[in-house]
Amino acid sequence: MERVVERVAVTGAEAVANAMRQIEPDVVAAYPITPQTPIVEYFARFVADGVVRTEMIPVESEHSAMSAVVGAAAAGARAMTATSANGLALMHEIVYIAASYRLPIVMPVVNRALSGPINIHCDHSDAMAERDSGWIQLFAETNQEAYDFTILAVRLAEHPDVRLPVMVNLDGFILSHGVEPVEFYPDDLVKKFVGELKPMYPLLDTEHPVTWGPLDLYDYYFEHKRQQIEAMENVKKVFPEIAREFEETFGRRYWFVEPYKLDDAEHVMVALGSTNSTIKYVIDELREEGHKVGALKIWMFRPFPKEQLQELLNGRKSVIVLDRAVSFGAEAPLYEAVKSSLYEVAARPSLGSYVYGLGGRDIKPEHIRKAFEDAINGNLIADEQRYLGLRE
Amino acid sequence: MPVNIKQLAQEFDKKEIGITQGHRLCPGCGAPITVKFVMMIARHLGYEPVVGLATGCLEVSTTIYPYTAWSVPYIHNAFENVAATMSGVETAYRALKNKGKIPEDKKYAFIAFGGDGGTYDIGLQSLSGKIERGHKVLYVLYDNEGYMNTGNQRSSSTPPGSDTTTAPVGKKLPGKVQLKKNIVEIVAAHENVYAATAALSEPMDFFAKVEKALNFDGPSFLAVFSPCVRFWRVNDDKTVEISKLAVETKYWPLYEVERGVYRVTRKPRQFKPVEEFLKAQGRFRRLLSRPDAKEIIDELQEYVDRRWERLLALEEVTKDKPIR
d(Cα A147, Cα A128) in Å, to the nearest integer? Predict the structure, then answer.
């Protein structure tokens, strides 16, 4: 197969919907919610036009979307859904069940503030609320990454050593509604890469009946959780294999994290999602001014790439962590994870926690520059949570 | 075609009807009899059952890991979503069949079981969604009129005067004060559905309805009166007797609604007063000793009488007039 890519300017929603079109899952159940809606709208159009042979279930709530997807996946179908914020929160109970049943579901999550008061714009409070649900969590910086991750996630979720659901996070409006050039791979190449689902213990196999979701009491539940923990650990082994194959097939390389001008960097910024583009822009400016600055983008938030962080951040002068979510009464979630990883390194950097962009508040180059300046001036306090772009 | 009892007896004799012995439900419980009746007919008609269960007595007592009483494919997801879960299973079946991954000739029966909590209350939205979308799933409600699994709490199916822990008969309040929610009418109002009531004391009527429901070209719903011996405080050999009383007092009328066409399937020549149904159970004992007992009994009597008259009238006016 020829690798002839089609470069088109599309929104993140259209990019993700096209990945879903190429994957052509058996079942898609979804409910509209801003800013996820265009994904299901695009996909419903594909179904209506007969472009895909997917059965769509236009459910009456996100709770039922996740429930139906669990049913479809357990039945032996490749099943997907997509959501945002309150929709994800409404799914919450079943999000845990999907992971516990080891169902390989892929779900784009268009990140949005979790109310209240109600707000439809981007932050990561929705994804962070599902941090411990047992799902693999990927974060996209660009529409290209959102498209690529949706394809890659299918392989990761369905790998026999993993068999866990994957959330593909993309920033609400910034990516979902922002137009960027995306290279679409040929349909047949994507189809070949994702391959056929090999269902495990499908409900529709009446010759070999199994009981899904029995009552699991104190005599076995703990062991089952332990198996789930191991499946999550296996991601660290399996992901590089799939990423390598992805690179061979499509020419793009993904890893747990993406270093940017990191080799000689003394001050490193760590963040999730689309803000990394602005960070890179500021780094270029600061480099021209002679500052040794760099960035470490987190592509995979769960499982958390602790080893990579330790290896890449050990011995740096300072590490600045940007969070688009908070944890009330505790440290911001990404900062907490980075700080905890760096406790074990030989030469601990000084640390700074910066919260930004809640409810869609803009993050501007001057905000990022300010945080870098704090680091360059030796003005970081590990215990102090600071805010970027907040009126005080 | 009415069920051939002889053939059915052979089916039952096989024991391979889907739910086996060894579950841990209470003796006298209505739920396993309900399941057996449904599975027997499904098997008898040549269906391969795939079962979904809402959280509840039936679920926790039949699947205590590492054991299971189910010899057919089974899924439990959560309390409120068995209808949505089975929507997904049924849709997966259609998708895989269209892609040629499922043998054409295999006859599946998708069956969801739920108690009244998971059906009338927390699962109502999911049930409504499933019916509106037209998934060919038979939803079987085993109605024991309360949250019996968590220890006798009120549900919207609990009748007035029944003593429950969250609506107890007290010094001021006579237990639950509201009437029972009419779930069959709610389901029937979706108009694209076959909905019916059934009682364990009327097996032939029950069987005929399961057959109709499974062969119905669309979503179907069966509400089964399902006594709970434990919290209704009746002896475990009284399940069928109580069911019979429920029918004979008009408390649980037997009828069906097929796309808006009503048919009352049992019309007893003589009715007993609803008080007899109440007196037969311990859950109404505290109500019956109250000075205002008569008011509540009269209210209930008036309600069941009016509903019965209304059902007969609906049968008359909807005859041969399906709404869809």
Answer: 21
For residue B17, the model assigns a pLDDT of 84
Q: What angle do CA B253, B257, B258 make, to 5 degrees?
A: 155
- Contact predicate B91/A64, CB 8 Å: no
ipTM of the complex: 0.96
User: Mean pLDDT across the stretch A35-42?
Assistant: 98
Chain B partners of A60 at a C-beta cutoff of 8 Å? 125-126, 128-129, 132
Nearest to B76 among A27, A209, A214 (CB): A214
Segment holding B92, helix H or strand E: helix B82-98
Question: Is the overall model pTM greater than 0.95, yes or no?
Answer: yes
Residues A56 and B95: their CA atoms lie apart, in Å, by 9
Asked if B84's CB is within 8 angstroms of A75's CB, the reply is no
Chain A residues contacting B, CB < 8 Å? 26-27, 29, 53-55, 57-61, 63-65, 67-77, 79, 93-94, 97, 203-206, 209-217, 220
pLDDT averaged over every residue in chain A: 97
- pLDDT above 70 for A237: yes
Q: Could you give the angle at which helices A143-158 and A221-250 cross, rounded to 10 degrees? A: 130
Instruction: Give me the DSSP letters along A210-235.
Output: -EES-B--TTTHHHHHHHHHHHHHHH
Please write the tens of the pLDDT for every residue from A169-212. Answer: 999 999 999 999 999 999 999 999 999 999 999 999 999 999 99
As a whole number of Å, the CA-based R_g of chain A is 21
